[in-house]
Amino acid sequence: MGLPVGEILDIIAEPRRQRPRPARFRLMPGAFEARRGGHCHPMRTAFSPARPLVAAQCALQWLARLWPSPETTAGVAPELVSASARKPLTAPTDLPDPRAAWSDRLWGAGFTLPGGEAEVLHLARLLPLSAATTLLLVGRDAGGAAGCLAGRYRSWIATYQHDARLVARMTPLLRPLGRRTVVQPWTPATPRFRDRYHHHALGLEPLHSGAAPDRLCQAVASALKPGGQLVLVETVASSARPVPGLARWLELDGRASPPPSRGMVESALQTAGFTVHVIEVLDMRQAVAVTDAWLQLLVGLRQGARPASTTEAAALVTEAERWLLWQRLLQSGDLVVLRWHATLPG
Question: What's this model's pTM, rounded to 2 decimal places?
């Protein structure tokens, strides 16, 4: 069955509604707080069931209407689905090449997380990187993060990647950097990196691989020199209850199991010897980045940058469903995206 490519290209995005400015974070004694409109308050989560997502989602909503999945129609976003469109998603979900191409268009070449280069630089800004430092980079990256950090700070980047598809994507991007970046394999079930070699570490959702939080954190701690610093970004689950749409999102996001809880990650960091200094909730930043990227992509589609085949169109709709479900799970509070900044004893 072919996709309604014409409908995808004829999407008319509704005007974006007013959205709040991203919070400016500052560290306060005993608590991490956010400043909005001149007032400070404890930062718990950017979304709650009582405060629906304000950033416009029309781009993802329109695409979700075209080919919804059973779980999309089962309690996640029923108002997005017309009666005539309620049919199961039968397109293949393992489309590495077409989906990688759309990922590059959304976030930038080699980036896999919302916000692309700007977000990676924001995440890593707490690390004192320079030409004299080595960085252990592990997690979801196809060369974009490694390349921009090596280019910006001239640091020596050791990228550990277990996914052969991401290795294939990053190889041509990192080749011009020569020996400043190196790609190494690792095994999520038994993580191990070069002992006591790296000054600092950046984890971009490394637990997406299925690695256990305690094993991963201990492996990172063993790979850092005394006084080494870690910035870890993870999507965590806020409850163990069944959540509508979660199973479908796990499938589309390539996860074999639900994300760990925040408590599991923080317990693993503490057991590994890390002291956590900053915890930042990234929900709003990344949700806004997702919305902006999809709206820009839709503008490009309407201006002629169309999918070349039904396979590419299927990949586009699959990515749209993935990110719509992600936004819905953040809005409901069932998922939270966090950044930890931690250090080892000197």
Answer: 0.77
